[in-house]
TrEMBL record:
TM region positions: 16-35, 47-66, 78-98, 316-334, 346-363, 383-401, 421-438
Alphabetical UniProt keywords: Membrane, Transmembrane, Transmembrane helix
Organism (species): Streptomyces coryli
GO CC aspect terms: membrane
Any one GO molecular function term: extracellular ligand-gated monoatomic ion channel activity
Species lineage: Bacteria, Bacillati, Actinomycetota, Actinomycetes, Kitasatosporales
Highest taxon listed in the record's lineage: Bacteria
Name by which UniProt lists this protein: Uncharacterized protein
């Protein structure tokens, strides 16, 4: 078969590839220039288009150099393997960029880094004239207790002006089961009449986390805080920046350096304000509710990144084994009149049954991912399963057609076309899913 005359379409395909190569080279140069001029703190911005252009360029170069359209066994196999390596390289490069992505943008609301920034924000949103109570937080322990719960403990304190009555002391965590910090640890009176009061807190926070990028996801554990008299408009919480060194998100201030979140690492801490309208005045005013009565909530944001190597590698090993078994099944397929059909044990029904058994393995693996994420949308690892569903369907169709009808393209090189396209097709689906899932979110 390798010595047969070349079909005319192969020469047309080679000329078309040269045209694609020229266009891809220009597109790659332009997109690379724009990417390098972009924001270095957001490495994913502009990466998807650049990655596609590079993949197309390298694929065209491989085709031009290896010349698989000569249809020899060695050239076609080399081209298939090299294209697969290009796609795998694009996937891995994207993972590396994700691991260095700037996650500060995950902070809920408007980030403030100084008291001046906090005052400027509050002046704009609610005006002046309130008692602004500096409030600080130190997280000593934090750990996930399921997909939407975080157990945390630590210390919270307030610097209260002398005009603030004792009954107004305290902090409420509105998103926690144990919302009050009730265990007073210390109280210090200052010469100017103000006082500092500190409490120990233990809270189970309920939050909705975004697991679409699992296992390369980053989360913001935010501690929303209200004053103990949150319905009184004249008492507003502000971050106690005076109790910390100059605030820098990457310094991870406000967290005990010995704090360990199993399976996670701390990436940043910030203070922010988030204005929420609960669509009720809680009966705190004599008049009727007015739209837009929401007040800014003070948030302490603890950014965490999953230690993704173990869950990703575990899943990749399982996916690779299943994908390899599906690929090896292609070597057992034979056309209906092939005398090796019985010795290979090939039958159309057997091929379909094998595909169903592989589907069950993948479904179990996908279910384990959903247990971790709580079924909140589709996680990145689930796209691996859908890519495998697609190739299983394709392999099953190939087996049915090969067993029931004669086709030169299917019979060429003993079903070589399916074998050559298998890995590039599977990796193209995963590469496309990777670029889609990890596109910039801000």
């Amino acid at each position: 078969m390798d010595d047969a005359p070349r079909p005319a379409w192969t020469r047309t395909a080679e000329r078309a590839n040269l045209a694609v190569l020229a266009v891809a080279a220009v597109a790659t140069a332009v997109l690379l220039f724009l990417y390098l001029r972009g924001d270095n703190s957001q490495p994913l911005k502009g990466w998807a288009l650049l990655a596609v252009a590079i993949a197309v360029l390298l694929t065209s170069v491989i085709i031009a150099v290896v010349r698989p359209f000569l249809l020899t066994r060695g050239r076609t196999m080399a081209a298939s393997a090299l294209v697969s390596l290009v796609l795998a390289g694009g996937i891995i490069t994207t993972w590396m960029l994700v691991s260095g992505d700037d996650a500060d943008a995950l902070s809920a609301g408007q980030v403030v880094n100084t008291r001046a920034e906090a005052d400027a924000y509050l002046d704009k949103e609610i005006g002046t004239g309130q008692d602004r109570v500096p409030t600080g937080l130190l997280v000593q322990q934090a750990d996930y207790d399921g997909p939407s719960k975080v157990k945390a403990s630590g210390y919270v304190w307030q610097r209260l002006p002398k005009e603030v009555p004792e009954k107004s002391e305290g902090v409420i965590f509105p998103e926690a089961e144990d919302s009050h910090a009730t265990t007073e640890i210390y109280r210090k009176q200052h010469p100017d009449g103000s006082r500092t009061v500190g409490w120990y807190f233990q809270a189970t926070l309920h939050q909705t986390f975004d697991y679409r990028r699992y296992p390369l996801d980053r989360q913001d554990i935010h501690f929303a805080m209200w004053s103990n008299r949150f319905t009184q408009g004249n008492l507003v919480l502000v971050p106690d920046f005076a109790s910390y060194p100059p605030w820098k998100a990457e310094e991870k201030l406000g967290v005990d350096p010995e704090t360990h979140l199993q399976g996670w690492k701390t990436t940043f801490t910030t203070w922010s304000y988030q204005k929420l309208d609960y669509r009720t005045n809680m009966g705190a005013t004599t008049g009727e509710y007015q739209a837009g009565e929401g007040r800014p909530n003070l948030n302490f944001n603890l950014g965490v990144a999953r230690q993704w190597h173990n869950p990703l590698i575990d899943s990749l090993i399982r996916s690779a084994i299943v994908s390899l078994m599906i690929f090896l099944s292609l070597f057992l397929f034979a056309r209906a009149d092939d005398e090796r059909r019985s010795s290979l044990g090939f039958s159309t029904w057997g091929a379909v049954t094998f595909g169903v058994s592989m589907l069950l393995v993948i479904v179990v693996d996908q279910s384990s991912v959903r247990q971790v994420t709580g079924s909140s949308g589709m996680a990145y690892l689930e796209y691996f399963a859908f890519a495998q569903y697609a190739v299983i369907l394709w392999v099953a169709i190939d087996a049915v057609l090969l067993g029931r009808r004669r086709s030169p393209s299917l019979e060429w090189g003993d079903n070589r076309l399916a074998k050559l396209l298998y890995w590039p097709l599977l990796l193209t689906l995963i590469f496309a899913a990777t670029l889609w899932v990890f596109r910039p979110r801000w």
